[in-house]
Structures are given as C-alpha cells and as structure tokens.
Amino acid sequence: MSDWLAVCALDRVPVGRGVCALVDGQQVAIFRTGVGTLYAVGNRDPFSGAMVLSRGILGTRGDRPTVASPMFKQVFDLETGVCLDEPAVTIPVHDVRLHEDVVEVDRRTADRLAG
User: Fold this and answer.
1) What's the rounded Cα separation, in Å, for the pair 67 and 44?
2) How many other β-carbons are positioned within 10 Å of the β-carbon of residue 61?
3) By residue range, what is the domain housing residue 15?
4) Domains in the chain: how many in total?
5) What angle do CA 72, 87, 58 make, to 5 degrees?
6) Could you give the CA distance from residue 26 to residue 43 in angstroms, rounded to a whole number?
7) How does pLDDT run across 62-83, given as a tens digit for each residue?
8) Going along 36-109, which residue ranges are E strands?
9) Helices (H) and strands (E) in the chain — how many of each?
C-alpha cells in the first residue's frame, strides 16, 4: 500500500477555500491558498468538537498561513497546527502534495499531532 492517498483532483479544491476528505477514517481539511499552496489539517475544531475547519476562513497572521474556525473564530497556523489564540491547543497537521493534478495526503501523518 502506498503512503500517499489520492483524495481529489486539484480543481475540486477552490482557491482560498477548503474541502473535507476522509483519510483512513479521519476527516482532513484540505486548503488551497491564493498562491496555490496546499495545506491539510484535521477537520475537528478542538474548541467546539465540531467537524468544521474545512469551512473556516483562510488568512494570515504576520507571515503565517492560517485558518479561522467558523465556530468560535480561533485561528490555527496551517503549517504547525498551533492555535495562535491559545498556543497550548493544537490540531493535527498532515503532509499534502500535488501529484499529476491530484491532491494526495500522506497516510503516515494521519495520526501525527501538531506542535
């Protein structure tokens, strides 16, 4: 079995938005920024428990790419998973890549926690 799981075609991830994919039974939020960078994090908002981060608002804080939860608006660093409002709280971060116009998530990072 390959370590990389194909989750969707690149054109299924809107620029500046997120989508949710199921990776080995876990919901993963996949984002594509305006410059085309892909990020993948756990879809569960640790503050509300809801599976909603894929519906969050992309942005930046300083030079850090971020997503703000649509529930209570906490902001998470997309590269580290650290909550920038409460640094003790993290979300899982997954390796993601583009391979022949297909977005793939590394299964080996499916259980890795941020931080």
Assistant:
1) 12
2) 13
3) 4-109
4) 1
5) 50
6) 8
7) 999 999 999 999 999 999 999 9
8) 38-42, 57-61, 64-68, 75-77, 93-94, 96-99, 102-106
9) 0, 10
Check: CB of residue 79 under 8 Å from CB of residue 92: no
Q: Three-state DSSP class for 11?
A: helix
Can you list the pairs that 83-87 forms with residues at least 24 positions away whose Cβ atoms lie under 8 Å?
Answer: 83/46
Pinpoint the alpha helices (H) of the chain. Answer: none
Q: What is the pLDDT of residue 113?
A: 42
Q: Is residue 45 part of a domain?
A: yes
Strand-strand pairing, 17-23 and 64-68? unpaired
pTM of the prediction? 0.92
Q: Is the dihedral angle over the CA atoms 38, 40, 43, 48 positive or is it negative?
A: negative
114 found inside a domain:
no
- Position 115 in a domain: no
Question: Can you give the CATH number for the domain in which 79 is found?
Answer: 2.102.10.10
Residue 37 lies in a domain: yes
